[in-house]
Amino acid sequence: MLLVYENRNTGVSAEWKKPVHVPPHLHEAIEVVYVTDGEIELGVGQELFHMDEGDFAVVFPNVIHHYQVFGEKENKVIFLYLEPTLFPSYYRELQIYSPKNPVVKKEQVHPDVVNAIKYLTGITEGDPRMIQAYAQMILAHVFTTMPMMDKSAVGSDDLIYNAVEYVAKNFRENISLEKMAYELCVSKYVLSRMFAKTFHCNFSKYVNGVRLNYAVAALENTMDSITNICLDCGFESQRTFNRVFKEKYKITPREYRKRIIM
Question: Is the pLDDT of residue 5 over 50?
Answer without folding.
Answer: no
